[in-house]
Amino acid sequence: MVHFTLFGIPVYIRPSFWVVLAIFGGALSISSVEDLIYPALFVIAGFVAILSHEMGHALVGRKLGGGQQTIVLELFGGLTSSHGMQLTRGGRALMILAGPMMTLLLGIISLGLTWNIVAPVMTSYNLNFWDLAISPFTAALISPKLYILSCLIMIGEWWTILNLLPIYPWTAAS
Fold first, then answer.
1. Torsion sign, CA atoms 29, 31, 35, 40
2. Which of 100, 117, 130, 164 counts the highest number of beta carbons within 10 A?
3. Are 19 and 79 in contact (CB under 8 A)?
4. Alpha-carbon distance 119 to 153, whole Å?
5. Three-state SS string across the chain, please?
């Protein structure tokens, strides 16, 4: 298990997290060393997006109610735990919304970078926002830079939507 501290918050990453991201990124279809680039970029994008999401929960939770925050990344996502924290109902709602809002912000920043950095490439290939948001594999046909930005846009949108659904989080410890 990988362990580090970010902004004073312990972060633990279980091997299952890397494996699932690699599978979602296409690692099972690798047939040559050159094929490693896109699954690796997907793993990086997924790590950045999910960690920023959990960091949103943890930082807002710490700011509003104190206590010790801990982040565990595993399987299909992550879990932020709070120990010794006292939150009001409104504070709890803000802490819950902070994760999806952080992921949405990451998606919007990625979209802005895409528009400003690679807009000429998108125009020459006749691509638009939805081409990148729905299928990063379209972007993969053009360049690794466009692919990772597309992954961040896709994860930013879809992870936000998924996290706003009223579904109780499942973890391996449940």
1. positive
2. 100
3. no
4. 14
5. CEEEEECCEEEEECHHHHHHHHHHCCHHHCCCHHHHHHHHHHHHHHHHHHHHHHHHHHHHHHHHHCCEEEEEEECCEEEEEEECCCCCHHHHHHHHHHHHHHHHHHHHHHHHHHHHHHHHHHHHCCCCHHHHHHCHHHHHCCCHHHHHHHHHHHHHHHHHHHHHCCCCCCCCCC
Tokens 């206590």, located at residue:
67
Residues listed for the chain: 174
Quick one: which of 37, 78, 33 has its CA closest to 54?
78
What sign does the dihedral 83-73-62-157 (CA atoms) show?
negative
Q: What's the number of CA atoms in the CB half-sphere (13 Å) around residue 27? A: 12
For the segment 16-57, what is each residue's pLDDT rounded down to a tens digit? 999 999 998 889 988 888 888 989 999 999 999 999 999 999
pTM of the model: 0.82
For residue 15, count CB atoms less than 10 angstroms from its CB and return exposed for 0-12, middle for 13-18, buried for 19 or more. exposed
